[in-house]
TrEMBL record:
Keywords: Lipoyl, Mitochondrion, Transit peptide. Coiled coil: none annotated. InterPro entries: 2-oxoA_DH_lipoyl-BS (IPR003016), Biotin_lipoyl (IPR000089), E2/Pdx1 (IPR045257), E3-bd_dom_sf (IPR036625), PSBD (IPR004167), Single_hybrid_motif (IPR011053). Residues 164-205 form the Peripheral subunit-binding (PSBD) domain. Belongs to the 2-oxoacid dehydrogenase family. Residues 128-151 have a biased composition (Low complexity). Residues 128-159, 237-261 are annotated as: Disordered. This is Dihydrolipoamide dehydrogenase-binding protein of pyruvate dehydrogenase complex. The lineage of its organism: Eukaryota, Fungi, Dikarya, Ascomycota, Saccharomycotina.
């Protein structure tokens, strides 16, 4: 069983090698093959050879990097599509403005001898190759009659022979069986720098009026340049000082500029009294904790009351972001001085006899005042409502603190 598999594998490899040699017999007639400047993009006309990665006489395999090509946008590498040998470099590295399709090197098979290798003529090789549709479709080479081409001849630009066709133009030429030579010599180019557009091919085939194609191209060309000859500069800067001088001459004083009042932020304040005596350090910690808890509770407060007519999901979608700052908290702790209390003795205003005055009794426990001021963020519409919820919840926490030290 294993021998049969090996035999079949060897036969398949033999078929592959034979098919490769058979495919390359057309190239072996000239021994060496011309390697042309590749087009790295559909709109690339010229490029630069940055550096060769393979030296003359070196073999390369499929996928190896042959050279780096520089375009007007980037530098890209060109990989080998098959095994071969770099026979001779025509365009050395560092050369700029190399036209697409121009010969840049000679390549051959890895088994070829460079001493006896024959090189093709560059003049014949640099000529544009006919489209593949000409050989595959000989009958479709003349789909367009001559009178139709003459009727579509309109005034326009001559096609640039060094251009690279757009994919849409190249596909249409191949479909209609029009070679590159016929397209460059017969089709009127209305694109920039002699570029053949899809509309030019359609006009040549008679599928659209040639006059309309030329008119559209002329309109686009005229719109590319902005005509500013009819625009006049305004003279407001000259007239305004003249008016001010006339007012000053007449004794009129210009009205002072009114400054717009600066909008003050919304403030929500609250004052809370703690009558119980609490150590200062303990009181500071308890108030800081109450501020943090009240702020968390205020942000969690809903902007709507519970109802069957309200969709909570929709309300959350239209509400401001939860992490948006609603207010800033500023608070201070101060001691309120105790007020003296009246004695039980009642002094008669009409009693002028000397009497013994008793000392005034003072309150034994001073009160503590906590003043809270919230600066609302007016950019968030529910900031004031959240601030009021903070004041309410903070007052509840202060009552709990006072109850613990009762």
């Amino acid at each position: 069983m294993f021998r049969i598999i090996n035999l079949q594998a060897s036969r398949s490899l033999a078929k592959i090698s034979l098919s490769r040699r058979t495919f390359s017999t057309t190239l072996m007639k000239l021994d060496a093959t011309i390697f042309k400047m590749p087009a790295m993009s559909p709109t690339m006309d010229v490029g630069g050879v940055v550096a060769w990665k393979v030296k003359e006489g070196d073999d390369f395999s499929a996928g190896d990097e042959l050279l780096d090509v520089e375009t007007d946008k980037a530098t890209m590498s060109v990989d080998a599509g098959d095994d071969g040998k770099l026979a001779k470099i025509i365009v050395p590295g560092g050369t700029n403005d190399v036209k697409v399709g121009a010969p840049i090197a000679f390549i051959c098979d890895q088994s070829d001898d460079l001493a006896t290798l024959k090189y093709p003529a560059l003049d014949a090789a640099s000529a544009p190759e006919p489209a593949a549709a000409d050989t595959s479709k000989p009958a479709a080479a003349e789909p367009t009659p001559a009178p139709k081409a003459s009727s579509n001849s309109v005034t326009g630009g001559k096609a640039n022979p060094d251009q690279v066709f757009f994919p849409s133009v190249e596909f249409m030429l191949a479909r209609e069986g029009i070679s590159r030579e016929d397209a460059l010599s017969k089709i009127t180019a209305t694109g920039p720098n002699g570029k053949i557009l899809k509309g030019d091919v359609l006009a040549y085939l008679g599928k659209i009026p040639a006059e309309e194609n030329t008119r559209i191209a002329s309109f686009i060309a005229d719109s590319e340049k902005l005509d500013l000859s009819h625009i006049e500069l305004a003279s407001k800067e000259v007239e305004e000082p003249a008016k001010d001088e006339a007012k000053e001459a007449a004794g009129e004083k210009a009205a002072p500029e009114t400054k717009k009042p600066v909008k003050q932020p919304t403030l929500v304040k609250g004052e809370f009294i703690i009558s119980k005596e609490i150590p200062p350090k303990v009181l500071s910690k308890l108030i800081a904790s109450a501020v943090a808890k009240a702020e968390t509770a205020a942000y969690a407060t809903k902007n709507y009351a519970s109802s069957d007519l309200i969709d909570p999901l929709f309300e959350d979608l239209i509400a401001p972001p939860r992490n948006a700052e609603r207010f800033k908290v500023n608070y201070s702790i101060s001691v309120v001085p105790s007020k003296p209390t009246a004695t039980d003795e009642i002094i008669d205003d009409f009693d002028f006899e000397p009497y013994e005055q008793k000392p005034v009794k003072k309150s034994s426990t001073p009160a503590t005042a906590v003043n809270v001021e919230l600066t609302c963020n007016d950019k968030v519409y529910d900031s004031k409502k959240k601030a009021e919820a903070f004041i309410s919840r903070f007052g509840s926490y202060i009552s709990q603190i006072e109850g613990k030290f009762a």
